[in-house]
Amino acid sequence: MKRLPSRLALSLLASFFVAWSAHAADPVATVNGTAIPASRAAVMMDEQKAQGAPESAELKDAIREELIRREVLAQAASKAGFDKRSEIQAQMDLARQAVLIRAYLQDYVKNNPVSDAELQKEYDAIKARMTGKEYKARHILVETEDEAKAVIDNLKAGTDFAELSAKHSKDPGSKDRGGELGWSSPDMFVKPFSDAMVALEKGQRTAAPVKSDFGYHVIQLDDVRDVQPPPMEEVKPQLQQRIQQSKVETHLNELREKAKVK
């Protein structure tokens, strides 16, 4: 007896599918006199193909076996009277409702696509809210104030910052990169560090050790720039999703306002 692969079985048992279309009328199988419609197999096949699974004879057999197993279980449940229980009927009603809602919303999104103009407007609004500065800094983190002072003295004597970072820094994320922290906004750092960093001019470094909860820092500011928004193409999928969700929410509110609720 062939069985569904576990990933497929889980997805079939956990999801509701709405990809209904015209398919063969012949039943997939007949279990104890009850025919299993081919449309059920088609829905399962469409879902698997959407997830990248290639259509094959093995997959068809696996889907057929899963449908038979489900029918056997459903018949056993009905025979035991589960379909007559009010709480089970309520769950079945909710499941049917969920399928209808998903189908309706998928159709709404399909017929109300996000336009390029809407994307640009949303992107421009985000850019307008992105104010402030970004700082490109590097640091050397040590455990004691005396160690930090020794680092500062070595820098004054002309020792390379990257060399001192590799030798002395306790920050594993930056020590082997010359202490570089990349472009960051001040709020990404603890307050003592950010306060000292933003007080520096481009090219300057702290004249005294900066104490934080992590230890003592020697900070050098390499550059400052206005906050840079990410490229449109990089955030386009997130913007599309946000706009689609907003459209759906607006449509739902319109339907709710028109509904006669007592």
Largest sheet: 4 strands, antiparallel
Taken as a percent bin, the fraction of beta residues is: 5-15%
Number of strands: 6
The tally of domains stands at 3
Descriptive report:
The chain is α+β, with helices and mostly antiparallel strands and 262 residues long. It folds into 3 domains: 6-80, no CATH class; 116-128 and 230-258; 131-226, Chitinase A, domain 3. 53% of the residues lie in helices and 14% in strands. It contains 9 helices and 6 strands, in the order H-E-E-H-H-H-H-E-H-H-E-H-E-E-H. The chain has helices spanning 6-14, 38-50, 57-79, 86-111, 116-129, 145-156, 161-168, 191-198, 232-258; strands spanning 29-31, 34-36, 133-142, 180-184, 210-212, 215-226. Strands 4-3-6-5 form a 4-stranded antiparallel sheet, sandwiched between helices. It has a two-stranded antiparallel sheet with strand order 1-2. A hairpin with a 2-residue loop joins strand 5 and strand 6. Helix 5 (116-129) crosses helix 9. The radius of gyration is 31 Å and the shape is elongated. The two termini are 54 Å apart.
Keywords:
262 residues; alpha+beta; Chitinase A, domain 3; 3 domains; two-stranded antiparallel sheet; 9 helices; 14% strand; elongated
